[in-house]
Design brief:
The protein is mainly β. It has a single domain, classed as Jelly Rolls (Sandwich), CATH 2.60.120. Strands 1, 2, 4, 7 and 9 form a five-stranded antiparallel sheet that branches. A hairpin with a 4-residue loop joins strand 5 and strand 6. It is globular, with a radius of gyration of 14 Å. The termini are far apart.
Length: about 120
Amino acid sequence: MAEAQCRSFTKKNCLSSLDGYIQNDNYNSAILIPGDEAELMLTFLAGQDYRLIICSHPVLGEVAYEINDAGGKLLFDSRKNEPDVNYVDFKVETTQQLQIRVQVPESRTAIMHEGCVTVLVGSKS
């Protein structure tokens, strides 16, 4: 899959999840395979309401994600919350960088599928 295909996938399958939040300027997407992990540092501004969405191609299975503060402290783990929900809404009290870690599960088959994983951030004041 090319970058253009990931953009198309995101537009068709992910943007509607923002639901009232305004997408930030960053487009964060990658083509991943089973067993892959990706990390991303993003800045969140004090006093804003945010929606963080992890949108992935169904062939990849149940993609898990974590949010950590800059010091590595775990703030959110999708596996410990509602695993079938691909977003989390939150507000930060102080402007800070947060690390988003996305993990694609290992495949149980010999066939290695690749698919897009997109991290979308929307905000509202």
